[in-house]
Amino acid sequence: MQGKRVLITGAAGFLGSHLSDRFIKEGCRVVGMDNLITGDLRNIEHLFKLEQFEFYNHDVSKFVHVPGELDYILHFASPASPIDYLKIPIQTLKVGSLGTHNLLGLARAKGARILVASTSEVYGDPSVNPQPEEYWGNVNPVGPRGVYDEAKRFQEAITMAYHTFHGLETRIVRIFNTYGPRMRLNDGRVLPAFIGQALRGEPLTMFGDGSQTRSFCYVDDLVEGIYRLLLSDYVQPMNVGNPDEITIREFGEEIIRLTGTDQQLISKPLPTDDPKQRRPDITKAKALLGWQPKVSRQEGLKITYEYFRSLPEHEIQHKEF
Ligand code: NAD
Ligand code: UDP
To answer: For residue 118, which of 141, 154, 200, 254 sits 20 to 30 Å off, Cα-Cα?
Structure first.
């Protein structure tokens, strides 16, 4: 990978910033692009001093121009937390659709390979568990989450069409709930929400009865899976996630133990169309990439908790989404 030039959209976000670090570490030149709508430049400020890193503040839903050659494009720009995409639904639809179209066009013009960030949300509220890639999903197109889910489904469809009709080198990763340092403490996702509440001495808000499940993957494991997928020759969508499934109630109890808070779980209404279960079938990633997660939830949560705990007090206290 030495000397390869890689465009990473969403570079100032949680996953984009970790990917930027990884590709720099592999000897690549990284072009970060972000309009900072849900991201934060502090996630990549350590990269600005490097000669191998450059940054464009740009909305990728508008025409994307990058001077010079590109070997790889990783399209990670998109709001990713339900709170974010409910607040900015049109931008969410646009970045998954128009943004993806722009980046596919750029990949074609540059002769670059493109990997797009899809999501377990393409499975909607799944009727099979765990979810294999062959499952077509159960999505409500006009529900509140539809703006994200359908944009990502369109993203997969147009990416596959560019592969089929233009022979473009494409990769599609279906990412399951991922966590780690640089998540926004107030982004509304369950892990930062629970840890933030514990740090502020507030009760932990469990939505519904907490019987819904999720499977949480530590960010370093995810980045490794994405890196391997990019360099593989597999063009069909691939699940990357940690199959260690847990109910949200049990997860809340784990966070209470981890943080030592004296607070309890309280129940709040379950959001519309909240998926009841989610667990990746990673048979393909294991067989084709030789990949599986290595970091246990216990280890990953500890690192993530230390990160949140070390934030300035005014950020911990800042609850607004
Ligand atoms: P994030 O909000 O931390 O990062 C997204 C970044 O994209 C932000 O920096 C934001 O400013 C930027 N962005 C959004 N719209 C843009 C636009 N139009 N132009 C340029 N930049 C724009 O979220 P994340 O968790 O890092 O997610 C990154 C990607 O991974 C998203 O595509 C998301 O759908 C996907 N994903 C994430 C998860 C997860 O658990 N974190 C799960 C499934 C899929
Ligand atoms: N959740 C919760 N309390 C919160 C935030 C989320 O109980 O303060 C639940 C949410 O209803 C869902 C799960 O935690 O069942 C994961 O939510 P998140 O927003 O992290 O991601 P999702 O997987 O739903 O996209």
So the answer is: 254
